[in-house]
Amino acid sequence: xxxxxxxxxxxxxxxxxxxxxxxxxxxxxxxxxxxxxxxxxxxxxxxxxxxxxxxxxxxxxxxxxxxxxxxxxxxxxxxxxxxxxxxxxxxxxxxxxxxxxxxxxxxxxxxxxxxxxxxxxxxxxxxxxxxxxxxxxxx
Length: 139
Ligand SMILES: [Zn+2]
Description:
Layout: H1 2-7, H2 10-21, E1 27-30, E2 40-44, E3 49-54, H3 72-95, E4 99-104, H4 109-132
Parallel strand pairs: 3-4
Antiparallel strand pairs: 1-2, 2-3
Helix pairs in contact: 2-4
Bound molecules: zinc ion.
Protein backbone atom coordinates (compact mmCIF):
# COMPACT_ATOMS: atom_id res chain seq x y z
CA UNK A 1 0.00 0.00 0.00
CA UNK A 2 2.74 2.43 0.93
CA UNK A 3 4.69 1.72 -2.24
CA UNK A 4 1.59 2.27 -4.32
CA UNK A 5 0.86 5.58 -2.68
CA UNK A 6 4.43 6.62 -3.34
CA UNK A 7 4.09 5.77 -7.05
CA UNK A 8 1.17 8.03 -7.56
CA UNK A 9 2.55 11.31 -6.31
CA UNK A 10 1.49 14.25 -8.46
CA UNK A 11 4.93 15.38 -9.71
CA UNK A 12 5.90 11.86 -10.69
CA UNK A 13 2.67 11.23 -12.57
CA UNK A 14 3.00 14.52 -14.43
CA UNK A 15 6.53 13.61 -15.49
CA UNK A 16 5.55 10.08 -16.51
CA UNK A 17 2.78 11.42 -18.73
CA UNK A 18 5.26 13.67 -20.52
CA UNK A 19 7.80 10.87 -20.92
CA UNK A 20 5.13 8.63 -22.32
CA UNK A 21 4.03 11.32 -24.78
CA UNK A 22 7.64 11.48 -26.03
CA UNK A 23 7.50 7.75 -26.71
CA UNK A 24 9.92 6.84 -23.93
CA UNK A 25 9.55 3.53 -22.10
CA UNK A 26 10.94 2.96 -18.64
CA UNK A 27 10.78 0.89 -15.47
CA UNK A 28 9.23 2.31 -12.33
CA UNK A 29 10.34 2.03 -8.72
CA UNK A 30 13.01 -0.48 -9.48
CA UNK A 31 16.61 -1.15 -8.52
CA UNK A 32 18.85 0.02 -11.36
CA UNK A 33 21.30 -2.68 -10.32
CA UNK A 34 20.57 -5.61 -8.03
CA UNK A 35 23.12 -4.59 -5.41
CA UNK A 36 21.83 -1.05 -5.01
CA UNK A 37 19.72 -1.51 -1.91
CA UNK A 38 17.05 0.98 -2.84
CA UNK A 39 14.77 1.71 -5.73
CA UNK A 40 14.85 4.63 -8.14
CA UNK A 41 11.66 6.28 -9.41
CA UNK A 42 12.16 6.04 -13.18
CA UNK A 43 14.84 3.85 -14.76
CA UNK A 44 16.01 3.59 -18.39
CA UNK A 45 18.13 0.51 -18.03
CA UNK A 46 19.65 0.15 -21.50
CA UNK A 47 20.60 3.83 -21.62
CA UNK A 48 21.77 3.77 -17.98
CA UNK A 49 19.73 6.79 -17.05
CA UNK A 50 18.14 7.00 -13.59
CA UNK A 51 15.59 9.66 -12.69
CA UNK A 52 14.84 10.66 -9.12
CA UNK A 53 11.69 12.66 -8.55
CA UNK A 54 11.95 14.70 -5.37
CA UNK A 55 9.19 16.37 -3.47
CA UNK A 56 10.12 19.88 -2.31
CA UNK A 57 9.02 19.16 1.26
CA UNK A 58 10.48 15.71 1.96
CA UNK A 59 13.75 16.36 0.23
CA UNK A 60 14.12 19.89 1.60
CA UNK A 61 14.34 21.66 -1.74
CA UNK A 62 16.66 24.68 -1.62
CA UNK A 63 13.89 26.90 -3.00
CA UNK A 64 10.82 25.75 -1.07
CA UNK A 65 11.97 23.42 1.67
CA UNK A 66 11.26 24.57 5.21
CA UNK A 67 10.85 22.67 8.43
CA UNK A 68 7.50 22.85 10.20
CA UNK A 69 7.62 25.01 13.34
CA UNK A 70 6.50 22.23 15.65
CA UNK A 71 9.08 19.51 16.29
CA UNK A 72 11.49 21.57 14.17
CA UNK A 73 14.52 19.64 15.39
CA UNK A 74 12.97 16.30 14.55
CA UNK A 75 12.15 17.54 11.05
CA UNK A 76 15.62 18.97 10.50
CA UNK A 77 17.11 15.61 11.37
CA UNK A 78 14.65 13.84 9.09
CA UNK A 79 15.51 16.15 6.18
CA UNK A 80 19.21 15.81 6.86
CA UNK A 81 18.93 12.03 6.62
CA UNK A 82 16.85 12.23 3.43
CA UNK A 83 19.39 14.51 1.79
CA UNK A 84 22.31 12.31 2.84
CA UNK A 85 20.54 9.31 1.35
CA UNK A 86 19.82 11.23 -1.87
CA UNK A 87 23.49 12.16 -2.21
CA UNK A 88 24.58 8.59 -1.53
CA UNK A 89 22.27 7.21 -4.24
CA UNK A 90 23.55 9.70 -6.82
CA UNK A 91 27.17 8.94 -5.91
CA UNK A 92 26.62 5.18 -6.08
CA UNK A 93 24.97 5.30 -9.49
CA UNK A 94 27.37 7.84 -10.97
CA UNK A 95 30.31 5.67 -9.93
CA UNK A 96 28.78 2.82 -11.93
CA UNK A 97 28.38 4.84 -15.08
CA UNK A 98 24.76 5.87 -14.65
CA UNK A 99 23.54 9.31 -15.59
CA UNK A 100 21.37 10.51 -12.73
CA UNK A 101 18.77 13.19 -13.37
CA UNK A 102 17.06 14.82 -10.42
CA UNK A 103 13.63 16.24 -11.09
CA UNK A 104 12.15 18.51 -8.41
CA UNK A 105 8.48 18.85 -7.77
CA UNK A 106 8.77 22.52 -8.78
CA UNK A 107 10.41 21.74 -12.15
CA UNK A 108 8.33 22.00 -15.30
CA UNK A 109 7.54 18.37 -16.24
CA UNK A 110 7.67 19.04 -19.99
CA UNK A 111 11.13 20.54 -19.72
CA UNK A 112 12.36 17.74 -17.46
CA UNK A 113 11.00 15.14 -19.90
CA UNK A 114 12.91 16.69 -22.81
CA UNK A 115 16.11 16.75 -20.75
CA UNK A 116 15.60 13.07 -19.93
CA UNK A 117 14.88 12.29 -23.59
CA UNK A 118 18.25 13.78 -24.58
CA UNK A 119 20.07 11.88 -21.83
CA UNK A 120 18.43 8.60 -22.87
CA UNK A 121 19.35 9.19 -26.53
CA UNK A 122 22.94 9.95 -25.53
CA UNK A 123 23.07 6.90 -23.26
CA UNK A 124 21.79 4.60 -25.99
CA UNK A 125 24.25 6.08 -28.46
CA UNK A 126 27.11 5.39 -26.06
CA UNK A 127 26.01 1.80 -25.56
CA UNK A 128 25.73 1.31 -29.33
CA UNK A 129 29.18 2.71 -30.14
CA UNK A 130 30.71 0.51 -27.44
CA UNK A 131 28.95 -2.53 -28.91
CA UNK A 132 30.22 -1.62 -32.40
CA UNK A 133 33.75 -1.47 -31.08
CA UNK A 134 33.19 -4.94 -29.74
CA UNK A 135 33.57 -4.37 -26.06
CA UNK A 136 31.42 -4.22 -22.99
CA UNK A 137 30.42 -0.85 -21.61
CA UNK A 138 32.53 0.11 -18.63
CA UNK A 139 31.32 -0.26 -15.07
ZN1 LIG B 1 10.96 23.25 -4.73
